[in-house]
Prior knowledge:
This protein is an alpha+beta fold. The protein contains 6 helices and 6 strands. The protein has a domain of 78 residues.
Amino acid sequence: MITKLRKRYYCEHCGKGGGSAGHMRRHERTCTANPDRECEMCQHTELGHHEIPMAELVAMLPTKSDFAEIQYHEWYDIGGLPVDLEVNVTSRLAYPGLEEAVKQVMDALREAVGNCPACILAALRQADLCDQISSETFDYKREKKDLWDNVNDAESAWQDANKVIL
Length: 166
Ligand SMILES: [Zn+2]
Ligand SMILES: [Zn+2]
């Protein structure tokens, strides 16, 4: 029998693990939880390149500690009977008014990062707000898709334009 121990590498910022040091190094450099992150999305698209440090972006956002917390319980119904066993309950903390306060600064945040979805996500994540906002306030997946669709459109338009010139 052959036993092999393989190294695993973990992101210092978010704890994500992987088997490749190179991949994890790249992830760590751009990780949305990294306060000194480089933004590949900004670099690739050249749409949102900005020089504002993450700490300043985070400071634009409201904090949970400014809002009173309440506990939410979601009760799951099993076989038509309401069950209040702990295992069937999920609780999360909610902060009334917090999402509304985030919404109010979203335009300023968007402007500060040139509307880059990864930079917006990083600021929200580092402000510990990701569990408090709905897709109505910010939908990373949709915005990222829209951005790449635009970039691809722009690239094909550029290629078409060049075909005419060449
Ligand atoms: Zn990470
Ligand atoms: Zn960015």
